[in-house]
Amino acid sequence: MLHRQEQRHWSAPVYPDFPKEEYDNRINRVQRYMAQENVDILVLWDVTNIRYFSGFHNLHWSSRTLQCAVLLIPLAGEPTIIVPDFFSPVVEGFTFVNDIRLQPDPHVTANLRALPALVAGAVKDLGCGNGRIGLESGEKGGMCIPRPINDIDSFRGSLDGATFVEAANLIWRVRVIKSQTEVAALKHATQAVVDSYGVLMDQFHLGMGEKDVALFLRKEILDRTEDCESPFVISTSRGVPMADVPAYDERVRLTPGDRICLEPLPTHKGYYGSCCRVLNIGPISDEALRRAELIDELQDQAIAVVKPGVKTGDILETILEGNRQDGVMDYFIDMAGHGVGLNFQEPPAIARNEEYELEEGMVLAIETWEVSMNETGFGLSAVEDYVTVTKDGCEPFPSFPRELRCLPIG
Predict the structure, then answer these.
(1) pTM, entire model
(2) How many CB atoms lie within 10 A of CB 179?
(3) What's the burial of 84, exposed, middle or buried (CB within 10 Å: 0-12/13-18/19+)?
(4) Contact indicator for 105, 54 with CB cutoff of 8 Å
């Protein structure tokens, strides 16, 4: 059974990401949407949703032998968090949650398998056992419950009087609108990228390969913010485009004339920043410069379209129309950016035929890119900038100067 912690040892968390008012606002907003959708309680199992609404986080989420937390948000009142008993200090260290329920002996397999029924018992204890229970499922954003299917079957089977409803869209309605504290965290992570590019410009030298550049950037970024995933670094030295792979293959060396695409993914307080740029190894050719300047122009046209009420599919169409007028092949698959936050890709997608309307407060990664193939390899131009949607348009994030296009070689 779960043991309810009688009281907090500390009246306030020691290391919260944000002030209490930030989390209160998030809970109040989601409860308003719950009332509109007739949802009596949200039961959240996913790490990003739990961190977003409570501030709880730790380094154990990659383990599937443990459920680090479950967060219950009722239609009225404060949330309840359920954690393994040894995480009690973590809850107090990071969150303002007062209703803390502890699972004893969480590493015992039988106890882990029993957790879904215990969560169902907590739902009943909150008076929602026969109510409408919102789950992390729905059409937007790929939201899901990261537990084995038998656990979810057990959870729902223990609440046979309840009605289960998809709540992903409801949750995203809150998460896509960023507060000023969230924007500040996103800008902090993005600035770390911009500053690290500047150091790379000063210290790059021939003999470095993709792996060297990736590790160099990651170290510089980690000196400036909290964390950074394996940077996306791809150069034309590969001979074939291989998007979204970590650049840790020592065989890919860089030579004069190569072009290298850089898109690190650092975080600050869990929020992802970035700024994608393509740099030339040494002087850039006239043709590569022409295509890079075209991409910059199309990027500016796309950013100029951003304002509340615009459909994200129209942003992509603006870029494609610019390509057609310039006589460039329609090289896009279906997207030119996305929302960002605690996930590095969030709704809304800037995608072909996407009907998602922009709202004030969204933060978007706008990206314009081109990959061209020929018998000797491939050409590459790309740019990504972050913007915040404002009342009348958008406000740009810190970004690396686009006119700095070449890494010096001597």
Answers:
(1) 0.94
(2) 15
(3) buried
(4) no
Distances (CA, A) of 344 to 152, 211, 263, 266: 27, 22, 12, 9
Q: Helix 149-157 and helix 109-125: axis angle, to 10°?
A: 40
Q: Using the structure block, give the residue that is written with the tokens 């034309």.
A: 236
Lowest-pLDDT choice from 196-205, 209-218, 265-274: 209-218
Q: Are 96 and 53 in contact (CB under 8 A)?
A: no
- Does domain 3-175 correspond to CATH entry 3.40.350.10? yes
d(CA 130, CA 108) in angstroms, rounded, equals 30
Q: How far from chain centre, in Å, is Cα 245?
A: 17
Around Cβ 310, how many Cβ atoms within 10 Å? 17
Please answer whether residues 159 and 134 qualify as being in contact, where contact means their C-beta atoms are separated by less than 8 angstroms.
Answer: no
User: According to CATH, where is 3.90.230.10 located in the chain?
Assistant: 180-407
- Residue written as tokens 């656990």? 151
CA distances from 14 to 11, 60, 98, 225, 284 (A): 9, 20, 14, 20, 51
User: For 280-295, how does the pLDDT look when each residue is reduced to its tens digit (9 = 90+)?
Assistant: 999 999 988 988 998 9
Question: Cβ(350)–Cβ(306) under 8 Å?
Answer: no
* Residue among 316, 280, 286 nearest 298 (CA): 316
Token pair, residue 402, equals 């686009």
Average pLDDT for 119-138: 97
CA Rg, the chain, in Å?
24
C-alpha dihedral sign at 326, 367, 285, 249: negative
Report how far residue 244's alpha carbon sits from residue 151's, in angstroms, rounded to the nearest whole number. Answer: 32
pLDDT tens for 59-97 read 888 887 889 999 999 999 999 999 999 999 999 999 999
Q: Which residues make up the CATH 3.40.350.10 domain(s) of the chain?
A: 3-175
User: Three-class SS of residue 83?
Assistant: strand
Helix, strand and coil content of the chain, in percent to the nearest 5, comes to 35, 25, 40
Give the integer Cα–Cα distance in Å for 135 and 44. Answer: 7
H/E element, 91: helix 88-94
What letter represents residue 165's amino acid? V
Q: Is 180-407 a CATH 3.90.230.10 domain? A: yes
Q: Of the candidates 63, 114, 68, 112, which has an alpha carbon nearest to the alpha carbon of residue 87?
A: 68
